[in-house]
Design brief:
Elements (H helix, E strand, L loop, with lengths): L6 E6 L6 H14 L4 E5 H6 L9 H20 L3 E5 L5 H11 L4 E6 L3 H7 L4 H6 L21 E3 L6 H14 L18
Parallel strand pairs: 1-3, 1-4, 2-3, 4-5
């Protein structure tokens, strides 16, 4: 009925790499083409479901564990689920993969240079982390472990959002998650 199979695209990368922006644009393109898609964003989950968690390594792991379980439920319901989490640790992303099922889990690495992420920094988080106001900040005072074998690598400093969406749609079609073409973002076919 939906002309799709449920799956999870797990966007990972530093703060400011474009995870939420690309996920939202892909969601818009998919929904505009009649597909059921939904974005689970790290910021939104931390205000509700995960509001009891901080940013210690243990809390970061629990945040991702919960997100992986929710994403698996959405995929079970047939949705193309788009997650936008820094998810800095490989082991946590592998746990999410296990919850979803490896055949339905596509890890998308937004590999953007740290300097570009810092320049974007709309919330001034990098500035605050460099000033010592925020501890345990990924990329500054806490580690980020890049994926070993992502399904797709995107550099939003070299490709615009529309190009990224086109590459993601092609990936979804190639892997058999979409039954028909989805117009790229910005063509007018997708709903805003």
């Amino acid at each position: 009925m939906l002309r799709q199979r449920g799956c999870v695209l797990w966007f990972t990368g530093l703060s400011g790499s474009g995870k939420s922006t690309v996920a939202a644009a892909l969601e818009s393109a998919l929904v505009g083409a009649g597909h059921a898609a939904f974005v689970l964003d790290g910021d939104n989950l931390r205000h509700g479901l995960n509001s009891d968690l901080g940013f210690s390594p243990e809390d970061r792991s629990e945040n991702i564990r919960r997100a992986g379980e929710v994403a698996a439920l959405f995929a079970d319901a047939g949705l193309v689920t788009l997650t936008a989490f820094i998810s800095p640790y490989r082991a946590d992303r592998e746990s999410a993969r296990a919850a979803v099922g490896p055949e339905r889990f596509l890890e998308i690495f937004l590999d953007v240079p740290l300097e570009v992420c810092e320049r974007r920094d709309p919330k001034q988080l990098y500035r605050r982390a460099r000033a010592g106001e925020i501890g345990e900040f990924t990329g500054v005072s806490a580690p980020y472990e890049p994926p070993a074998s992502p399904a797709l690598v995107l550099d939003t400093s070299a490709a615009d959002v529309s190009e990224c969406v086109g590459r993601l749609v092609a990936l979804l079609r190639r892997r058999g998650f979409l039954a028909d073409a989805v117009p790229p973002a910005g063509t007018g076919a997708a709903r805003a």
